Each structure stands twice: as C-alpha cells, then as structure tokens.
Amino acid sequence: MNAITATDIHKSFGTLSVLEGITFEAERGSILAILGPNGAGKTTMVRILSTLLQADSGTATIEGFDVHDQADDVRHIIGLTGQYAAVDEFLTGRENLRMIGRLYHLSKKDSWRRAEELLEQFDLVKAADRATKTYSGGMRRRLDLAASLIASPPIVFLDEPTTGLDPRSRLAMWDIIKKLVADGSTILLTTQYLEEADQLADKIIVIDGGKVIAKGTADELKEKVGKEQLEFTFETDKDYKKAHDTLFSDAPKADAKRRSISIANDGGVRKLKDLLQQMEEAKIKVEGLSLHKPTLDDVFLKLTGHAAADAAQDEEEK
C-alpha cells in the first residue's frame, strides 16, 4: 500500500484556481519530490495533506486514513516542517524540543529523552542551551525539522526545507533527509531547486500552474529531453564551416558565432572515436569537446517553455 495517495485534488481561493486535478502516490520508505516554481501550488498541496486545509474536491489518504474524514488519525502519524522555521526565539533549543514533546502528549521523561536524542542527531548539542534567536538560519531549520520528528512520525512533509540556506547548510540538510529515509521514514518534499529533487527524490512530480505536467524518476524525466549531447568547438571559422558542411549538415544545434556544433551521442564511445578520426583525416582542427547530459532544468524548460529559475523569479515579482 502507498503511504500517501492524492486523487484529483482541486483547490481554489475565490476566483484563483490553485490546484487543478492533482493526482500522485508515494511509496513507503521513499522520497517523493513535488517540483515547481513559487506559486505552482506546492504548499497548498502540503497543507491539504497535513489536514491544515480542506480540498474543494478529490480525495487524499495518509497510510489509508482519509485526510478529511480521519484527520485526527492522520495528525498522529505525520510530521510537518513548513517553509519558515516555527521555533520560539526566546526559548533554548533544548526547551523548544521539550515543549513540543509535551504538546504531542509525550510524558515528561519521554519528552526529555527525545529532545536529547534529536539534539545529538541534528548536531545541536553545543547550542542546546542558547536562545534560538542566536541560531543561524541553518541551525533553526535543523531545530525545526527535529521538532517535527519529536513523536517519531512515519510520514514527514518538508515544504521547501532548504530555502534561504547557504550551500553548506543545504548539504547538511540533505544528509539528514537521506538518513531519515534510510531509517524507514516516508518523505514528501516540495522544492523549487532542481538539483535538490535530482539528489534526493526516488520519484518526482512536476507541477506548474496547479497541474501535474510530468512525473517519474529523475532519469525518466531526463529521457523526455533526449540523449546526452556531444559539443565540438572548432579552432577557426574555416574548420567550423568544413565540419558543418561535410559531417554535421543536419545538426540541430550549430552556432557559427561560437564555432560550436552539438549532436546526440547515440553511438557512445565508438561514435565519438569515429567522428574524431574523420575530422583528423579531413584536417579539421577541434579546439574543445564536451559532453552534456540532460538535466531537470532541461526537462522543465521543455515542458513549460521557461527555466525553473526564471519561473520562480517571475512568481516572486508578481
């Protein structure tokens, strides 16, 4: 049985349609990434799955519990980390975790025990007795994630957990997320970072404008773009023209200004060896050679007509 199932979810706010028939599943013990720019509907979907918001239509279940009709049961088995760290700035890290434990109705003994375990797990022991207002952004995010795990939930929702973090803190958060899954958790991750989805997710759904526009593994999505590309750069305009006219006249990507030609590498090493030999025999001088594998950014560009970074910037400016 899937840990998370959403079927034909619709949600509007007044005349603004945010979700338009979202359907997906997440297997137990896996990471599902919902990828899309700001304003695509990612957070709205998480709020519906975590019982904080009611869908206009459609159904969603968490471990078989309906998020609308069995909301209390759902809340007992999920943890949620929102886009912004929800910690009390005037309490210490240790006090925050103990308080959350008590709010989850853990006994005082269990709350203290879990707080110490999580402080150790998230590398916050040295800062445990400092007020969280003195924490860095990365430390706050780690504390917030630790708080969502205080009751050891099997399902964890992470809504853009690394937004605003520096590269080092982002990598540290990725390591924590991978360990959670290795320990048996199921994670639904929303992100606008293509690299994050590529690094972490077992499966990805891409949404734009409130609709699912693609789904699959990172490799399956990349296959939508095509095969890896070989790019040759030539020493002179004469070399470029000769190569274009004699070997690559049908190349879909040729740039005379850069003296570069890109072709699909559908023959592997043998094709590359044959091409280099042909160019040597024709006395065509190659200045550079590079191999480009499709990325999730290429996928997003093909599916939507714009890069994910451009889409995120557009949404922020609205």
Descriptive overview:
A hairpin with a 2-residue loop joins β9 (203-208) and β10 (211-216). The chain is built from 12 helices and 14 strands. The chain has 318 residues and is an alpha/beta fold. It is elongated and about 80 Å long. Residues 311-318 have low confidence and may be disordered. It has a 6-stranded mixed beta sheet, sandwiched between helices. Strands 2-1-4-5 form a 4-stranded antiparallel beta sheet. Strands 12-13-11-14 form a 4-stranded antiparallel beta sheet. Helix content is 38%, strand content 26%. It has helices spanning 42-49, 71-75, 93-103, 108-121, 137-148, 167-182, 194-200, 218-223, 237-246, 268-281, 296-304, 308-317, and strands spanning 4-13, 16-26, 31-35, 57-62, 65-66, 78-81, 155-159, 186-191, 203-208, 211-216, 229-234, 253-255, 260-264, 286-292. It folds into 2 domains: 4-223, Rossmann fold; 229-292.
Highlighted features:
alpha/beta; Rossmann fold; six-stranded mixed beta sheet; four-stranded antiparallel beta sheet; 38% helix; elongated; disordered C terminus
Largest sheet: 6 strands, mixed
* Beginning-to-end CA distance, first to last residue: 41 Å
Q: Quickly count the domains.
A: 2
Q: Can you tell me the overall shape? A: elongated
What's the average pLDDT? 89
Q: Give the radius of gyration.
A: 24 Å
Query: Which stretches of 5+ consecutive residues score pLDDT under 50?
Result: 311-318
Here the CATH topology of the largest domain equals Rossmann fold
| Beta-strand segment tally | 14
Kindly report the spatial arrangement of strands forming the biggest sheet: 6-7-8-3-9-10
What's the tally of helices?
12
SSE string, helix = H, strand = E?
A: EEEHEEHEHHHEHEHEEHEHEEHEHH
Summing up helix and strand content along with how strands pair, one would put the structural category as: alpha/beta
Task: Please report which band the strand proportion falls in: under 5%, 5-15%, 15-25%, 25-35%, 35-45% or over 45%.
Answer: 25-35%
Specify the oligomeric state: single chain
Name the CATH homologous superfamily of the largest domain.
Answer: P-loop containing nucleotide triphosphate hydrolases
CATH domain class of the largest domain: Alpha Beta
Tell me the CATH architecture of the largest domain: 3-Layer(aba) Sandwich
Helix content: 25-40%
